[in-house]
Amino acid sequence: MFNRLRDLFKKTEPVEETLAFSFDDLPGWLGAREEEIDSGLLDATAPSREAITGALERLREVIARMEAADADETIHPRLRDISKKALPQFTKSMAQILSREPSGDPETFYATAAETLKSVLKAMKGQGKYLSSSYPDEMKEVRTAVRDLGREINAMTETVSRARADRQQVKDAREVYESLTRIRGEYTAASGQARDYRKALEELDGEIQKAEEDLAALRLRPDYARRQEIEGKIRELDVQDEEIGREITALRTPAVHLFRKAEKAAGKAGEDTAAKAIGRALDAYTAPLPDDGDTLAGLIESVMPATLAMIRRGDLALKNQEEIGLFSDPDTLPAGIRRTMRRQREVQEQRAALEEARAALPSVIDEQHLTAEVARLQREREVKTAARARAEGQQEISRASYARERESLLSRATALAKREVVISVPDLPPT
After folding, report:
1. pLDDT for 290 beyond 80
2. Where are the domains of the chain?
3. What's phi and psi for 292, nearest 5 deg?
4. Which of 252-266, 285-299, 380-394 has the lowest mean pLDDT?
5. Half-sphere exposure of 92 (CA within 13 A, CB side)
């Protein structure tokens, strides 16, 4: 199969036919194309590699002769002395540079040869520049060999660059192939997840509907009427509790105002014991009310004689009907506190009993359970809905990426084959 593809690809073929193969055959075709590139590079660079090897050998020979050669005695003594000093350094450096023979594949050979040329040119610009006068023939040979070396390396440059570009095309096409394979896997996984979440959501919708139907059926149960009756009584007690709260406020507000004035008045009069007692009663009266109304009423009773005495002396003035009604005698305010707080406690106890009775009803217990279950199912539905959306979003991303990469693959394969290419890239599986 691959031999046929390789034959179709040969540049010597007179008719440029469309190249067609399957997606699964692409790796083999790319491998064959890569082999062709390597083989073509080997053949194309063979003459240059041979010439480079020859040029390097000539350089080694001339450098060996220079080590044993005598300088031209006709040149100026100073130039002769400079040459004698430069020669050992030059030949040693050149021998070291030329000791490395280029070998291996064409690209490795090319890299070694190019580096050798670079080092040789550096040596010639260094100690070598002092040797042309003393060793004119030898340095002429060196320059000729270096020129030949440079020419052949330059000839290899274009060929190697073209092979590298072609090999990069192979690499790019292989990466696109791998990308398509990966995207296909991601799409398949996302499709499976979306399908599973859709199924799970259908089941959840059924469970939610069943729980909501069970909640509606509670209203038809015999104990549901009893529940409504209890809840009606609870609402009546709540109304009474609000009324009692307003009565307590009507007792507290004017009393707190007067007790504050009484505390100040007692302090000014030097009645420290009375001032402290009134302060304690005031603190208790302005704090959250205790459950025991008798304790609070007892504190108020203890300070009423001193408060009424200040009123009779004119140290305290009663400025409205509320104050007059509460502080005309020592019993009205404490008795009002006891009465209202006792009523409040009775109402709250009755309400607690009704709450307990309601909580014990099977319909209430079942409703709490079903309500909690519906809430749990709704939360689970939200989570799975979001997960399904993410999976479907991944599907869309994968579809778009797959389409782009498919076009890219055809474009890269066409550029690589230098003819029209048809690749049967499979479509993404249906959802």
Report:
1. no
2. 221-376
3. -90, 105
4. 285-299
5. 6
